[in-house]
Amino acid sequence: MNLELLQTFGLSFLLSVLSMIVYRFGMLKGGLSLRTWIMTDSKDCNAKIVTGAGILLLGVTSCWTSDDPCVSVVIGCIITLGFIDDGFKLSAKFRLVAYGIGAMVILYFFVDTLNIDWLLVLVVFVGFVGFVNAVNFMDGINGMVALQCVVILTGMLCSGDWKENELFIELLLGWAFAFSIFNIRNIPKLFLGDAGSIGLGFSLFTLMIPKLLEGNSWGYLIYFAVIAVDVLSVIVARLFRGENIFERHLLHVYQRLVIQKKFSEPTVSMGFALIQTIVTQKLLLAGGFVAFTQRNAIAASYDLS
Q1: How confident is the model at residue 295 (pLDDT cuts 50, 70, 90)?
Q2: Does the predicted TM-score (pTM) go above 0.70?
Q3: How many domains does the chain have?
């Protein structure tokens, strides 16, 4: 990480902290029209939690470093839609359709610049929508999404495999660190809301899309290992029991640890982040995914000879 990127991270962090302080103060001091974004904590009726803080992501996503502003515009629209939903609770079907359209538009941008098998595109699309919804579910635990985001982005930055998006990753990482200050608490000051969880889900997976569309780079999904394993294990278990996987439930490991085992939410979030950190570190110690696969290919060629 060079000095310029470190300065970018620091600036993003400071501006994000300031914007979050202003956002919370403005919401709490605003009129009745803003009360729909304010909740009372279940443990302390005097503690006010302001949701919808993810709307502040707009300042970061506007800096998306791609050749087409389409990506930034789509993610911005998704974040705005999520913010409206945080306050007025839009139809679940409407939201799902909107997120699906957003994912298709972003995928079209990447597919339009590459010669890609459409079956691969379909698989990536399903993964896109699934990942976004998984991140949205995880937002129910204080610190879970923020810490996963920090670990994933740090891994991407250290790997050197996302050179073209380093600026955006630094900005988003600074934002995630800033949000952690307000969210990793037993009684948080801010919630991401759908604006943030969906926005972060879109941002993280969009960073991954070019790697996945290469066709032989699925190992990059190891950056999403904790999220993927938890979600897929629950889906498989529910299918095995003949349950409707689209119905709401409390079967995720992190939910059971909080509800049944009585661990604090920040403790569970930090535990999950530690696991993802260990998994990511193993990959980075191998020199990144590209170097790792190249070494395996060379070793295989020697074995064949």
Answers
A1: very low
A2: yes
A3: 1
